[in-house]
Amino acid sequence: MQFEPIKKDFKRPYIIAGPCSAETEGQVMATARALAEQNIDLFRAGIWKPRTRPGAFEGVGKEGLGWLKRVKEETGLKVTTEVAKAEHVYEALKYGVDVLWLGARTTVNPFSVQEIADAISGMDIPVLIKNPINPDLQLWIGAIERIYKAGVTKIGVIHRGFSFHGETKYRNVPRWQLAIDLKRQFPDLMMICDNSHICGRRDLLQAVAQEAMDLNYDGIMTEVHPRPDEAWSDAAQQITPAVFKELVASLVLRQETTDDAVYLAHIDDLRQQIDELDDELMKLLGRRMQASEQIGEYKKRNNIAILQTTRWNEILDQMMVKASVLGLSENFVNTLLRAIHQESIDHQEKVMNQERV
Ligand code: PEP
Ligand code: MN
């Protein structure tokens, strides 16, 4: 697949902003006017809102499309809204919506994505595809393929974080690595960070937007409302146009690389150190697995089970203490040790059951 950017010759960061939902004509116009002054690239507003429980505000519907049309006419801004079924696509196109976006709850459902793909087939309208609510890269790629096969080449993806069971600091936990894997497979795919739905709260918005910039994201999508506390949906994460202006101004943009010879020589040096360390890490891990296999062999002879919970807990506890001294995060060490432990179990399992195969 080969993609084109949503906007020709766009400059990073590509800025998408606007309210979570279109609520009233006044609210939409006030937000749009303030954002037009900031020269944003695309104005967002949800017209049909996917709500977890019935009875919550489900969007103003078709009426709001007229307001988006007015935004275009009066401010010159391009506009985008979420579409979740064919009927939404037809209505949005009728009112001149410039860019369509697929929400997380739509990307997760191939039937819905296909329905939308069929509805836009043959139209040259850019489409932004949010990640599915669960961290499944194939599902995300599947949605991109369905839209691409409908003839759309101006496709962008939006990382809005993933649902997580339990307490987290984010509303939807970002999985940067997953988005990086996507970018590795499709380098020309435009990648936007929806910091609003990742954070779910105002105080983290700037840091997450900056993190996205540091990871070479092409832009951000942020929810902006003239009176955030009174918003009919997602009040806790929306910010005023003035606060948004500060957020954008605060973003530090870094170049992907440079041709400065001194820089290149020094970075080469540092990278060589990393390569050597990675090499050592691999060798060490290989040796660790050999030791595990010996343990497996020995346990087998003595008819002892592979999993020793007490021993595993001891290792985890000891390593956590060492990790904090070394400045490694608890989360990282936990993930790393679990992966190593799983690989060890697999090696021991192989040794134990060799004869049965
Ligand atoms: C939204 O952008 O307002 C929205 C509903 O987002 P998501 O699909 O990411 O939940
Ligand atoms: Mn929202």
Describe what this molecule looks like in 3D.
By secondary structure, the protein is an alpha/beta fold. The chain folds into 2 domains: 237 residues, TIM Barrel (Alpha-Beta Barrel); 96 residues, Chorismate mutase (Chorismate Mutase Domain, subunit A). The chain has an 8-stranded parallel β-barrel, surrounded by 6 helices. The longest helix has 41 residues. The structure holds phosphoenolpyruvate and manganese (II) ion. Manganese (II) ion (MN) binds next to loops.
List key phrases describing it.
single chain, 357 residues, alpha/beta, TIM Barrel, Chorismate Mutase Domain, subunit A, 2 domains, eight-stranded parallel β-barrel, 13 helices, elongated, binds phosphoenolpyruvate, binds manganese (II) ion
CATH topology of the largest domain: TIM Barrel
Ligands and ions found: phosphoenolpyruvate, manganese (II) ion
Uncertain runs: none
For the sheet with most strands, the description reads:
8 strands, parallel, barrel
What fraction of residues sit in β-strands? 5-15%
Task: Give the class from helix and strand content and strand pairing.
Answer: alpha/beta
Shape: elongated
Radius of gyration: 25 Å
- The figure for the number of domains is 2
Span from first to last CA? 42 Å
User: What is the CATH homologous superfamily assignment of the largest domain?
Assistant: Aldolase class I
Which architecture name of the largest domain does CATH use? Alpha-Beta Barrel
Mean pLDDT: 94
